[in-house]
Amino acid sequence: MEYIFKPGIKGKPVFVLLHGTGGDERDLLPLAEMLDKDYGVLSVRGQEPENGMNRFFKRTGMGQYDLENLDFRGHELLDFVKEQAEKNDFNVEDAIFVGFSNGSNIAINMLLREDANFKRAILFAPLYSIELDDKKDLSGLDVFISMGKNDPMASMRDNETVIELFKSRGARVEEYWVNGHELTGDAVMAAKYWLNK
Among 12, 14, 157, 180, which residue carries the largest CB count within 10 Å? Predict the structure, then answer.
């Protein structure tokens, strides 16, 4: 797996950076620096090519996911994060997923897994309109979600589905609204403030 690891100050959390479609492991490094330069960074490249663009899992259309592949890639990526935690001596439960778009979606998949117990996540422009029958307890999770009121890829109903996915499982959700399918400077500053609360 292609990735970049940068250690932070000993004992500080590690950001797990997950890029959007067409990105790579370098895309979100400036974002991590803006959020907290003292934190470690594990930035991963998606393993599923789509028309020459990197993604974290396959899809069959816009917002339509290959669920078998999503399950496989989510499991694979979670195992990789755990391996990196052991190799680089950080507490995997203190890792903070920071995702944009497709990266946010694979982060949600990992947060919902029974063998995962993360405490914080920062998700920009997620879309996860999958019918779920699990009721995993997420009462130990705080999540910051930035969504677009006029996102061409995610309707307001899609946004509400993501919010409810977390709230219905007991997670504490901080919502931040932008216009479109974007990662804005204001949203980053709001996430930074939330992180430091």
Answer: 14
101 catalytic? Reply is: yes
pLDDT (tens digit per residue) in 21-56 = 999 999 999 999 999 999 999 999 999 999 999 999
Give residue-wise pLDDT tens across range 114-164. 999 999 999 999 999 888 878 899 999 999 999 999 999 999 999 999 999
Instruction: Fill in the DSSP letter of residue 79.
Output: H
Residue of 104, 142, 146, 181 marked catalytic:
181
- Helix (H) and strand (E) counts for the chain? 5, 11
Give me the catalytic one of 19, 36, 43, 101.
101
Contact criterion met (CB below 8 Å) for 141 and 120: yes
* pTM of the shown model: 0.97
Q: Which domain holds residue 93?
A: 3-196
Number of independent structural domains in the chain:
1
**103 and 19 in contact (C-beta within 8 Å)?**
yes
**Residues 6 or more apart in contact with residue 33 via CB below 8 angstroms:** none
> What does the DSSP 8-state code read for residue 12?
S
Would the CA dihedral through 145, 47, 9, 27 be positive or negative? negative
Domain of residue 131, CATH code: 3.40.50.1820
